[in-house]
Amino acid sequence: MTRKIGIIGMGHVGQAVAQQIITNGYTDDLVLIDKNKSKVGADALDFEDAMPNLTSHTNIVVNDYAELKDADIIISTLGKIKLSDNPNNDRFAELPHNRAEVKKVAQKIKESGFNGILIAITNPVDVITSLYQQITGLPKEHVIGTGTLLDSARMQRAVGKGLNIDPRSVTGYNLGEHGNSQFTAWSTVRVLDQPIQELAQQRGLDLDQINEDARMGGRYVIVGKHYTNYGVAAAGVRLANVILNDAREVLPVSNFREEYGTYLSYPAVVGRDGIVEQLQLKLTDEELYKLRQSAHFIMEKIEEAD
Length: 306
Known about the structure:
CATH superfamily of the largest domain: Lactate dehydrogenase/glycoside hydrolase, family 4, C-terminal
Oligomer: single chain
Keywords: NAD, Oxidoreductase
Low-confidence stretches: none
Distance between the termini: 39 Å
Number of domains: 2
Family: Belongs to the LDH/MDH superfamily. LDH family.
Pfam families: Ldh_1_C (PF02866), Ldh_1_N (PF00056)
Order of helices and strands: EHEHEEHEHEHEEEHHHHEEEH
CATH architecture of the largest domain: Alpha-Beta Complex
GO biological process, one term: lactate metabolic process
Largest sheet: 6 strands, parallel
Helix content: 40-55%
GO molecular function: L-lactate dehydrogenase (NAD+) activity
Shape: globular
CATH topology of the largest domain: L-2-Hydroxyisocaproate Dehydrogenase, Chain A, domain 2
């Protein structure tokens, strides 16, 4: 069966996503879309120049929304990252610009007849994911944001470094908004087959500092190079592969939770049909409070975006 992915927005993140997909041969057909025609055309040619030295071939189409009709997945990476390069690490600084762009793009996606799974990376991702779902009319379980899949990875990286182990050996989740109101749900985190709180006491880990490192990880990268791309691209590509392969993996992604009335990050089983099953974590009272606060904040911003 032929696999087909569309990427909308060929900035730093879109390029990184496309490069991972092409280099690893994750799709047969790739549709690249960007307002800057010369830029996206140059990217396509550059990728085609790379293919003779790769182990797989990818057919590339440029700036044709009609080609999205039979795509399995669309990945939204559009944005204006320089708006997020601010002292407050405020992802909502991008909202006015990205809201206007997403409204136009979502309408074109709808008109194309696309009926696959839409992955939003565009910030502020929980609000943008909601906006895409509303305009395209796709089922809620078919519109997913990368959410705290990246923040959870940042937490794993920080814990792994603190314990000198591979971050993939750390399990657990950051929840809520992909933004300043997200938090590490320490009750879900296990490492070396132990709850993290017990190990932290034994090894002298500062969990508050690790939580801050996860929350502000993007800020540290932006200070150094004025944008982030590799970490979130890896999250987006991982999510796309889980969908393509019907892997049914549990991931902390932005999905619509009825009990909170909004999109936010909470672990769910993800497969070819998008959100296949939602989990129900046994959180502490403090974590539940933080999650409700985060949901409330997201809902306020969604109302502003309408």
